[in-house]
Amino acid sequence: MTQHLDDDAELYALGYTERERSEEIEAHLATCAACCERVAAAESVAASLSAALPPMPAAAPQRRTWWPQLATAAAVVFAATTALEVGFVHGESDRVQRTDVALTALASTHFAHTTLTSRPGLTVKAIYSRDGAWVYVVASGAPAGAHVVLRQGAAQRDLGALDDGAPATLFIHEPGRGDEYDIVAGGNIIAHGKPMY
């Protein structure tokens, strides 16, 4: 494996990878310090979240599919990792408040995410509610002053500027559903992605 783990790092940290994939990941981790750090951060966040949650009452056994729990856990770990980096490393209380709002939205609704296609050095994810009630955009490597634009057909709406943090974020209440999210800087689209409602 020559590529970085991407989302598999969080899935591995949560124990949601198949045995064969776990073995591939472990071989990669033996040679990649960046992925080791990402897995360690995801494991730390998962442990912190687990310790902070109240115990759940025992429920009657039910047959459930694993995919919804996996998607929720991965998104919460991703969002919490972002929250920890944003809030505690930089110590910015207003960003912590915005992150708390985003995490509350994540915890209380059904959501999905998409990775936006972007230029090298820029990584952007949009995490959004399936009903269009909110979107949380997280961007690493975004230039100062970059804006999030929602496109619906020929119409477009500027949802606001990403903050100047590392990573840069923007949480939007009631953006509605659109065909595409764009990141625009200097009048140019530098990232774009299609939500899958």
Write the layout of secondary structure elements.
Layout: H1 8-13, H2 19-29, H3 33-52, H4 67-90, H5 93-108, E1 111-118, E2 123-129, E3 134-140, E4 147-152, E5 155-161, E6 168-173, E7 180-185, E8 188-193
Antiparallel strand pairs: 1-2, 1-8, 2-3, 3-6, 4-5, 4-7, 7-8
Helix pairs in contact: 3-4, 4-5
From the alpha carbons, calculate the radius of gyration and give it in angstroms. 17 Å
Main beta sheet: 8 strands, antiparallel
- Helix and strand element order: HHHHHEEEEEEEE
Describe the strand arrangement of the main beta sheet, using strand numbers.
5-4-7-8-1-2-3-6
Beta percentage is: 25-35%
How many β-strand stretches? 8
Helix content: 25-40%
Main CATH class of the domain at 92-197: Mainly Beta
User: Could you give the distance between the termini?
Assistant: 32 Å
Number of contiguous helices: 5
CATH arch. level architecture of the domain at 92-197: Sandwich
The outline comes out as globular
What value does the average pLDDT take?
76
Poorly predicted spans: 84-96
CATH fold-level name of the domain at 92-197 = Immunoglobulin-like
The computed structural class is: alpha+beta
